[in-house]
Amino acid sequence: MTLANATDSSQEILSVNQLTRRFGGLTAVNQLSFQVRRGELIGLIGPNGAGKTTLFNLLMGLIKPSEGDVFLEEHCITGFKPHEVCQRGMVKTFQNVALFPEMSVLENVLTGALQRVSLDEAKHLAAENLGKVGMLHIADKKAADLTFPEKALVEMARALCTGPKIVLLDEVMAALNDAEMDQILALIRKLRDQDGLTFIVIEHHMRAIMNLCERILVLSFGQKIAEGTPAEISRHPDVIAAYLGQEMKAEDLT
Ligand SMILES: Nc1ncnc2c1ncn2[C@@H]1O[C@H](COP(=O)(O)OP(=O)(O)OP(=O)(O)O)[C@@H](O)[C@H]1O
Ligand SMILES: [Mg+2]
């Protein structure tokens, strides 16, 4: 599905309404509202501490909002526990890859599958999804021995095993070189095009975000300061001032 044929509201998969999270005196996410359509590739950018990871934690039910609501496919999931959110079809990867280091790749991926199916089915699902990300050949390798790109792909396979409709990726491409990043970008596009998955991607690599995403949300101090296509975002004065730096030009980003 492409953005062009996903424009009516019946295609909405996620709706975030006036979401707010305070930590003591700090408002990490502030009155944030946005919608995501099924099959969209959304980028989420903003300076360090802007509230990006906190937003993902709120969406997944890892922390509770101070105010506001989250709807997943028309169902209000505000206050749901993480495993309930996962059962409804939303999953996230962690900013710092969180594989169990002493377990094998297959065992790590199994932990995703076992959340919803029996062991036999889980083994089948784990192998299928390791194949999907091109990592079946390292199924028996210890997670601690993986390279950065392998870890990112194995984390992706584990997330896919939960049977998601929408996947939240928190800086999975950090520490990757350009070629490794391109491999992940191609995989995300394939999963959207072939399986109809929806992605929200937090990433500091501007080239990755600008090339991948159809729409970008920009956070600063917990608030949405801009929303638009990569071209619109790269020329937005508030984004340049808050994030990209005055000296950076749009053509640097593509
Ligand atoms: N559990 C917490 N308790 C108190 N403050 C928190 C907590 N979690 C996050 N914060 C604060 O909320 C703000 C937003 O943090 P968050 O991790 O969401 O930012 P981020 O946009 O993901 O940043 P980065 O790009 O560095 O990952 C920061 O000021 C952070 O210190
Ligand atoms: Mg973060």
Written account of the structure:
The chain is an alpha/beta fold and 254 residues long. It has a domain at 1-82 and 166-172 and 198-247: P-loop containing nucleotide triphosphate hydrolases (Rossmann fold). 35% of the residues lie in helices and 24% in strands. The strands form two sheets. A six-stranded mixed β-sheet has the order 6-7-8-3-9-10, with helices on both faces. It has a four-stranded antiparallel β-sheet with strand order 2-1-4-5, with helices on one face. The structure holds adenosine-5'-triphosphate and magnesium ion (MG). Adenosine-5'-triphosphate is lined by residues 23, 26, 28, 46, 48-54, 95.
Q: What's the name of the CATH homologous superfamily of one domain?
A: P-loop containing nucleotide triphosphate hydrolases
By CATH reckoning, the class of one domain would read Alpha Beta
Cα end-to-end separation: 23 Å
Tell how many strands the DSSP assignment holds.
10
Here the CATH topology of one domain equals Rossmann fold
Approximate shape: globular
Strand line-up across the major sheet:
6-7-8-3-9-10
- What small molecules accompany the polymer chains? adenosine-5'-triphosphate, magnesium ion
Determine the structural class based on helices, strands and strand pairing: alpha/beta
Helical coverage, percent range: 25-40%
Strand content: 15-25%
